[in-house]
Amino acid sequence: MGDANGDLDNAGHGRDRYLFIRVLEACNADCFMCEYALSRDSYRFTVAEFRELLPRAWEASVRYVRFTGGEPLMHQDIGELIRLGARQQMKMSVITNGFQLPRMAESLADAGLAQVIVSIDGSSADTHDLYRSTPGIFDRAVEGLRRCRDLSILTRVNTVVGPHNYTEVPALQRVLSDLGVGQWELSALKLDRSMVYPSPDDVVACCDPVYEPDDAALLVPLGKRFYGDTAEERAQYFERSVPPRAGRPVCHVVDDVVYLDAKQGVGYACSCLPHRGGVGGAVARREGRWWLDTPAFRAHAEQFRGQGPVSCQGCSTTAAGYSDDVARLGRVPEWNY
Length: 337
What we know:
This protein is an alpha/beta fold. It has 11 helices and 11 strands. It has a 9-stranded mixed sheet. Strand 3 (about 90-95), helix 3 and strand 4 (about 115-120) form a beta-alpha-beta unit. Helix 2 packs parallel to helix 3 and helix 3 (about 100-110) packs parallel to helix 5.
């Protein structure tokens, strides 16, 4: 059922949906793989915009809201944005590099933050600070995770893996397990060039035990292996640098995810698509208002529903695993996207 402006109901599958909002593009880190490194862009998604968006998001079955950037903790109203969503019974999440997390953890908890996702790519300050070109960021991220854990905020770490750091993964697994992190995503590094590993066999030998550890106390990554679970996926990854995708015949992520690039006023049906050049979304802001499931958005989603498993070049392991779990089980546990 739609309204006069063309907003549609959700797909009718009964699952709760995730709404990602890029609330700013500014960032205080200098990560080599990121287009927002050290950005000082002035755009900020406003509290007024979020207030207007929330009712239609609820009507579209959104129950999880995840703020991303840039660095969301640089947004001066991030606490109020979280508080506003939590008051509307939304489960609120942020993706952060963790640099400001130790000093902000308590205020974020007071605002109603349910989950924090921290990006960590190395098992120590010696490596992670180098990869992120930001001295002190590893220790701050770890301390922030510890404080959030103690404040009963669900903790998750996202790790970008490539030839530079795959040997760090087993040690990082132990660090995160000892820290009591609740979830962990390992996703392949994606650059506009091929990823060349000295030895694919060494990658598998190094990282396979991470996914099937002998020690039950170790944290196991979400979703698929970053280099693929099958021989076909591994060939695609090591020979063509294409990470594992959702299994055929369709991608189910597009039924459950809306990603808003707030600055551009564009919506995408997956959190991976806006980071791949040349992928068009759908206009999501008209006449100063936000619209989620417009006919244009549903057409965009339907395109990738069928094409994603055969053409997507930048899927995350969590997205691929989520889609396959939906196909197999019909539902996915809370926060498993």
